What does this fold into?
Amino acid sequence: MKKILVLIILTGLLVGGGAVYWHRGSTSAAAFRTAQVQRGDMIISIAATGTVEPEEVIDVGAQVAGQILSFGTDANGRTVDYGSPVEADTVLARIDDALYTSEVEQAKAQVLSAEGGLKRAEADLEQAKAKLYQAERNWERARQLGSSSSALAATDYDNYKASYDSARASVLICEAAIVEAKGNLAQARSMLQRAERNLKYTTIKSPVKGVIIDRRVNIGQTVISSMNAPSLFLIAKDLTRIQVWVAVNEADIGRLRPGQPVTFTVSAFPGETFKGEVGKIRLNASMTQNVVTYTVEVVADNPNGRLLPYLTADVKFQLDRHNGVLMVPTDALRWTPTADQVLPEVRRTLENQSAAGPRHAVAKETAPSFTDTDVQEQGILWVPEGRHVRPVFVRLGLSDEDMTEVEGDGLVEGMAVVTGQEEIQETSAGGSNPFLPKFPRMGKRRPPPPM
It folds into this structure.
């Protein structure tokens, strides 16, 4: 009988303990999320996207039409192509010059014809002058005899007078012919110069020293020159200096100025930052989907030529910079604890606060050196101490939304500050009563098979 009673008591204790254990199986508690105070450079910048461009680009075209026969050689002795370095007056390409050579020969023939015409007019003038001299002498003798003289008939007198006047007119005609011949010669020579220049245009030369970044024709292709000269080659004059053309929103353009430092990155060289400065802010704004943007030219050095034209650049315009300052996540300044999370002594200070408000009371308690103006304008960080937090009053500096510059009494690098809290589930060991018997899980009973 006693053995049965002891067995009943032990069974009751085990069942009661298991029930208590079961009810304690799940509880919740708050844990602080913290971050460390960091020391670094706080940079306030404007982010934008741009394109790497050569500082000066020469578009080489053709002034005459014709078929491309061949390309020239670059500074390395290779056929001109993409990326070829060229010097000034380097032959880039040659156009078929057969038509232009014939035009030159035709113009030379016209010059010779005009020169012959001039010489013929000069000879005619000399002949006319000789006839004028003879007519003038005859007229002088006729005048001495007079029209009423018995030795000279009146008709002869008139003939001498007419011959003299005709000879004078012939001289004037010959002089005019010489002027016309000289004009024809000048025109022929001008046509020859034009034909010779067109012949020279069939040889395309580089106007500057640089690098060919685009070749737009092939051998055998026919170029046609009309109102606009066809573009054959694009030459970057100096790739040791580049520009980044950046589209900046109108809301940010007022904060930029020439000479402002700029950093940018390109996908071609991940992890590497390039430096430049604002060179020019263009005034011709563009509008896309009601968004107004201005093009800002950023100039930068490219001594080794690593930055290639037309790379996409992620640009940051530096508006302000503080080096070697203490920084905390901005979320740490936004978080506020509940009353039971604050240290008891600080809570009592808050309960006995004056009319200035709790923030004023905490600041005066934790940072007596701060003035009332500082209290009104600055912020509070919360430092964890076990299950509670204590405040640290700080002055705020620059902020890039993610991090904020701070300064305060007792604030040191590496100090942990609270940025938030999260609920964690605390479960007792096992999560269920290990002493309770475990029964096998029963599945659904199947209906008996049909008879």
Remarks:
- The first strand starts at residue 27 and ends at 36.
- Residues 99-201 form one domain.
- The CA atoms of residues 269 and 307 lie 9 Å apart.
- The longest helix spans residues 98-145.
